[in-house]
Amino acid sequence: MTKILGIIPSRYGSQRLRGKALIDIGGKTMVQRVFEQASKSKKLDKVIVATDDERIFTHVQEFGGEAVMTSEHHPTGTDRCAEVALRFQEEYDVCINIQGDEPFINPDQIDELAKLFDDPSTQIGTLVSRISDYDELFDYKEAKVIFNSKTMEAMYISRSPIPYYKDKIKPQWLQLHPYYKNLGIYGFQAKILASISTLPMSALEIAEGLEQVRWLEHYRIKVGVSKISTLSIDTADDLKKATQYL
């Protein structure tokens, strides 16, 4: 039976909302809410917070969660998760990177991703959702994904809308083709995650500013389509929106 570890990378020095992991949201901190939601998953065997900050580490222990200290030099949350995967790769088959800034993540969404690994050939898995908003389609902050509808494997990931309709006006694009955005949650075979941070940056990754492109150049990424929405908190405005979930 596949054993799955959920890893929540959490750091204090967020660029746009400093200390957001410990920000209070309706009586609980961000990191506690993420941990508690992830712990409701039916597919995860264990949930761990990975941090480089003693304040976060101590807080997680105080509310009864499990945390591990990692290097303070990781450039991304994936690299932080990779350090944890290296420690636990003999105990767990799959690791799921759960974003530390999604306090209301639906555990069913985690299970949707975990189910992709029911197929033992799945190397990396992610979720996408269909784009229905014009502004979202052309928002460079949203990573768009095209995938093979037969194999459900990603073909490319870009900040640009893909495919590009050469002879159609842009307001028509959403009516002509289904576009999908990446939901930012990824699962990995544990041994792949443990080694993924050692892969050299590629020209495509540098161009797009997306680490997922580097993974795609070395591994297959299985895609699941989700209808479950989530809220990522990156700014003070996002924090205000979070109160609507309470």
Characteristics:
246 residues; alpha/beta; Spore Coat Polysaccharide Biosynthesis Protein SpsA, Chain A; two-stranded antiparallel sheet; 10 helices; 23% strand; globular
What does this protein structure show overall?
A hairpin with a 4-residue loop joins strand 8 and strand 9 (153-158). The protein has one domain (4-237): Alpha-Beta Complex (Spore Coat Polysaccharide Biosynthesis Protein SpsA, Chain A). It has a 7-stranded mixed sheet with strand order 5-4-1-6-10-7-11, sandwiched between helices. The chain is α/β, with parallel strands linked by helices and 246 residues long. The protein is built from 10 helices and 11 strands. It is globular and about 60 Å long.
